[in-house]
Amino acid sequence: MRKPLLFALVLVLLTFSFRASDNMLTTTLPLIAKYYFHFSSLTIGLVSSLATVFAFLSSGLLNARLRGEARRRAFLIASTTYAISFPLFYFSSPANVWLLTSVMGFAIGVLMPNVVTSASLFPEQRTRERLLSLYTLALSTSLIAGPSIESAVLLKFNLFQAFLLFSPLAALVFALSFFLDFPKSVQEVEGRVDVWRRSGFKLSVALNLMYGIPFGTLTTFGGIFAIDSFGASYSAATLLFSLFFTTSFLGRLALTIYPPKGLWGFVGLSTSLTFAGLVMAFFSRSLIMYALALIVLGVPHGITYPVSLISISRSFSEGERSVANSYFSAVMTGFSSFVPLLISGVVDVLGVRGSFGVLALITLLFTAYIFNVFKQEQKQG
């Protein structure tokens, strides 16, 4: 299935179904943990971290070492596990939610890097980068539609019932996974690829870490902040994420239509708007001000990930991209697995608002490192 248009259709549908259901899980689970299971902030962070911990293990320790048909079989097993486990959250309890979240995380860690790798295998650079941007655009579309749908669902159904209503999307991931191609014509690299020697990989990791920390905080505590600080309903708190992902969508739409020639202008935009959005969230005193902060933060969310994927695709050969994407996914999920846990400690001491101020300072540190990578690249060039 290497025809670009046909592949693009499968890519969009699979990505939309997966990310809409996956995001529903990551934003709804903290609400269930707090308001139904009455977990503490630390325990909320722990249960939210489990999915990313197991995604890190499956992506870095399993998927990065598989080749060809074995990787395809693992992908199909993961899609099956994802479809079966998702509706089981309807029956979740303070005891079994730990197991369910771990199983889902393991499946997610196999699914995501393989979708990205498949999109990055087209030999023609412009087509390849458009498909990568289209993949991230499908992510943003699902993240606009998903919270909007869930917001409407929560007007009549509870948080547990929402999992049943989103389960058809998880089933669609399973159905479409059989159509994703793993081309045998690509000679994958055997052995280890020294990814850290490539400036494109270092840029991708640093840029995503810079944004991944505040994003992990928003998905875990953003809804709780809106409810506790501004009296928002469950429905309104969920709808706020649609505003965030709308501006994310617009950024990715622009990159899909106009693949970037140079990346560093987008890098500067991402770092500056991340800092500005976190400062706005810290000083917000109304739901409208907080919503505006989320709108600003949506822009770097939109451009950071596609710029990172394009950077990797330009830095590695076709045979190296599966390894690079697996390690990139593993690093991201491994690091982000500790974000809810680490930030929950800050929340316990300073509150959610105070954590936004701390994250703004952390953003400045990552920005300094990112532009140090840029200077090194300029000297090498």
Quickly count the domains: 1
The gyration radius over C-alpha positions equals: 19 Å
What composes the largest sheet?
none
Q: Count the helices. How many?
A: 12
At the first level of CATH, the class is: Mainly Alpha
Strand content: under 5%
On the 0 to 100 scale, the average pLDDT is 85
CATH fold call: Growth Hormone, Chain: A
CATH superfamily: MFS general substrate transporter like domains
Into which percent range does the helicity of residues fall? over 70%
Order of helices and strands: HHHHHHHHHHHH
Number of strands: 0
Which term fits the overall shape?
Answer: globular
The first-to-last residue Cα distance is 37 Å
What structural class should be given to the helix and strand makeup? mainly alpha
What would CATH call the architecture? Up-down Bundle
* Spans where pLDDT lies below 50 across 5 or more residues: none
Protein name: MFS transporter
GO molecular function, one term: transmembrane transporter activity
Domain Major facilitator superfamily (MFS) profile: 163-381
Pfam families: MFS_1 (PF07690)
3D structure, described in words:
The chain is mainly α and 381 residues long. The chain has one domain (4-181, 195-380): Growth Hormone, Chain: A (Up-down Bundle). Helix content is 81%, strand content 0%. The protein contains 12 helices and no strands. The longest helix is centred in the last third of the chain and has 42 residues, at 339-380. It is globular. The two termini are 37 Å apart. The mean pLDDT is 85.
